[in-house]
């Protein structure tokens, strides 16, 4: 199967599952009788263990040829892990399963991204277009699950996820053509520690950690906050879907309109979007402001993520791609989100929507740091 089609299906299946998990897992936990503080702890622990999972799994991948077998194994183990949530709902059982599931399942994200960035190098793949297939699947799942929660209850969050994971297992075994391979003349892949020695990589990770980490309150508590304000599960699903519609628009426009911009410019735009978006969400639950804030998801997440992809594919040598992808997933999309999500859980009780103002403060250093992201590398921007 051509690389574009394979990756479109893979991203579609992964983000269909993620579209059920990310907006609504907190509501599933709430339906199991878990308190807001415990939800924050579970979500934070889950995001934190991604750090170990991403580094341990990605750190053991010695070359591009290992990406596909690892993907297939992770799909199967992810399905088995989430099936375990049917077996019990005690707090300690939820803690154990949260650790196991989040060690395995989220690692599919950096592995999939590593496959995609490898295909950008091998086949000049249009990353934005293939990635938007995942965003579209996220919309389908969030809208579907929001309706199912309203009509049938929060149990359907887990049901939809398990069905999606079963589909992922089947899709992962489709042949990929061309198979991922190391570039001719590519030097041996450095270790994660060696990759982290690069000052430019460290600055890149700090900037992206602040940008992506600031989504912690949104990922963990927007559904609970909006539900408390009187919005139904269906409405919450539509709000999340609107955010991803904006994301799709940005991914679709990437090659035509944004390809001339480097990482520094994209990070600046992402930071500005974060300041506005989190301020809006902290200020009000008025529907008009929520709609505007959700449209800004295309800036806060997508433009920031495109900046990360731009840095990794343009400003790094190919042999550092897998290592940088692992560190980006573990630190920027993992442990920083976990830390700010856990903090949001502790402060949601006394502050309510005020936790979003803290997320806006978190991105302020980006305005200085982003200017030094590619210093010593390509010099773009």
From TrEMBL:
Subcellular location, principal: membrane
UniProt name for this protein: 3-phenylpropionate MFS transporter
UniProt keywords, alphabetically: Cell inner membrane, Cell membrane, Membrane, Transmembrane, Transmembrane helix, Transport
Highest rank taxon of the organism: Bacteria
UniProt-annotated location(s): Cell inner membrane
Residue ranges of the TM segments: 38-57, 69-86, 132-150, 156-179, 233-253, 265-283, 289-309, 321-341, 347-369
Membrane topology: Multi-pass membrane protein
Ranges for domain Major facilitator superfamily associated: 7-352
Entries under Pfam families matching the protein: MFS_1_like (PF12832)
Cell inner membrane listed as a keyword: yes
């Amino acid at each position: 199967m051509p690389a574009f089609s394979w990756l479109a299906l893979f991203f579609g299946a992964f983000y269909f599952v993620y579209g059920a998990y990310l907006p609504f897992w907190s509501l599933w936990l709430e339906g199991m009788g878990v308190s807001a503080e415990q939800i924050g702890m579970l979500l934070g622990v889950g995001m934190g263990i991604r750090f170990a999972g991403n580094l341990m799994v990605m750190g053991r991948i010695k070359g591009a040829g290992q990406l596909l077998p690892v993907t297939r194994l992770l799909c199967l183990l992810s399905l088995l892990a989430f099936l375990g949530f049917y077996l019990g709902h005690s707090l300690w059982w939820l803690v154990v399963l949260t650790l196991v599931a989040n060690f395995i399942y989220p690692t599919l994200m950096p592995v999939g991204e590593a496959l995609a960035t490898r295909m950008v190098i091998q086949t000049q793949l249009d990353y934005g277009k293939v990635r938007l297939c995942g965003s579209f699947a996220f919309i389908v799942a969030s809208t579907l699950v929001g309706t199912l929660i309203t009509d049938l209850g929060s149990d359907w969050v887990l049901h939809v996820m398990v069905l999606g994971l079963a589909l992922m297992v089947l899709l992962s075994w489709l042949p990929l053509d061309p198979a991922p391979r190391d570039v001719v003349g590519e030097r041996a892949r450095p270790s994660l520690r060696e990759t982290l020695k690069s000052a430019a990589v460290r600055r890149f990770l700090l900037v992206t950690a602040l940008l992506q980490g600031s989504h912690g309150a949104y990922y963990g508590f927007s559904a609970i906050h909006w539900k408390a304000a009187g919005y139904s599960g269906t409405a919450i699903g539509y709000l999340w879907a609107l955010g991803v519609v904006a994301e799709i628009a940005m991914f679709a426009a990437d090659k035509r309109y944004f390809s001339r911009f480097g990482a520094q410019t994209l990070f600046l735009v992402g930071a500005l979007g974060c300041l506005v978006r989190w301020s809006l969400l902290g200020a009000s639950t008025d529907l008009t402001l929520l709609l505007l804030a959700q449209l800004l998801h295309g800036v806060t997440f997508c433009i920031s993520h495109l900046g990360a992809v731009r840095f990794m594919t343009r400003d790094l040598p190919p042999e550092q791609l897998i290592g940088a992808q692992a560190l980006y997933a573990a630190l920027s999309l993992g442990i920083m989100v976990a830390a700010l999500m856990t903090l949001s859980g502790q402060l949601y009780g006394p502050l309510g929507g005020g936790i979003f103002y803290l997320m806006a403060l978190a991105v302020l250093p980006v305005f200085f740091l982003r200017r030094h992201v590619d210093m010593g590398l390509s010099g773009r921007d």
